[in-house]
Amino acid sequence: MTDYEQLYIGGHWAAPSVDARIEVRSPHDGSLVGRAAQAGPADVDAAVAAARRAFDEGPWPRLSPAERRAVVARFDALHAARAEEIAALITAENGTPAWFTRSLQGALSEQTGAYLRASEGFGWEEEVTSPSGARSLVRREPVGVVAAVIPWNAPHQSALVKVIPALLAGCTVVLKPAQETPLDGLLLGELFTEAGFPEGVVSVLPADRETSEYLVAHPGVDKVAFTGSTRAGRRIAALAGEQLKRVSLELGGKSASIVLDDADLDAVVAAVPFMAFTNNGQSCVAHTRLLVPRSRYEEVVGAVAAAVEKLTVGDPADTANFVGPLVTAAQRDRVESYIRSGLDEGARLVAGGPGAPAGLERGNYVRPTVFADVDNAMRIAREEIFGPVLVLIPYETEEDAVRIANDSPYGLGGGVWSGDPRRALSVARRIRTGTFVVNGAPSGFDAPFGGYKASGVGREFGAVGLTQYVEHKSIAVAA
After folding, report:
1. 449 in a domain, yes or no?
2. In the annotation, is 284 catalytic?
């Protein structure tokens, strides 16, 4: 069992101001995984004060970019060395299957590496001259104290995609992990200390929603970086807007994957589990709408249903299992309510359905589910379910497919499948989302990631992600 009795405040371990503890139980069988200290408003005050001093008076923002890169690179090496341990802890906390947790933890050095490369080539200070001869120095300076508020579904990826660029820019950071995954968040504190970040630069505060709002609205915070639900994102944007505080939001999605009539169906079917059911379907970028031409519809429905019925479900620590339990009983019940909604709305159930898989009633399990004959106006096609549910929507023409894909309040991801790369790119250019893949191509960490519409504000990854943590200053100088 993992037990953290203290919080990580400004580089030091400190007793929390409240007696409450966060108890983490396995989504698989309810066994005790660990306990963590829980922060209260007084702890937020202490962490923000430490971050404020470190930013206003300390060395971190005043180091050269190269000096900051050296410390971040040291942290990355320490983090990579404990990847297996961290992956196992996250799997125990939130039920993410071990095969995926290990893969994601292994990729985080690539994510951090993209930020390190961006920092090295970044125009921290550049001179520009106008046609009139006016000269200016354009500086990119750190935005200040950053509150990084993250979810439970991919905790270290969500944490480091914010903390790393903020630190490289010279900011100081208060990281707020989700209540469901506080243990791996506090483990990061050990690595921050070992890497040698100066006093006050980083804090880690697991907290409830009320204390999280207190952090977001704290007058000592200059920027809020958030990943989570669109509903929570709207609330954070409102709180930040009252103070004209900088904000970036990576929110929900209801991404569509378009199968064109010339697509390789074997490739599509092989990709469906990874597109829709990775991390138990608890992924903002999951392709949960599969748009299929009417001419090949029943062929695709049968093949996808058969593939999903074969998915192994069970103990997430067993790498043989593709799907594990949902993070909480409440999340399980929410997903079950959507499955019942799909049935009530008249969608055709072709795989899975209500109820837990046989023998797994004790955990937070949901059967991987596929609905066919779905209309894009149904709830299961419009709302983010955040669970292992895929809907298949028929379309008549390519233009019809584009229209359906864009007919969503979200705009985070999506994809297209075609035997003609030029045709696929033509479709990709017409979809209103921040990220898109052609024929299952992998995405890199140097390209920006984020969404249109209700899927968020701002971008992460690489050089564009680094710009989210700087202010631009122009200094006119004499010729």
Report:
1. no
2. yes
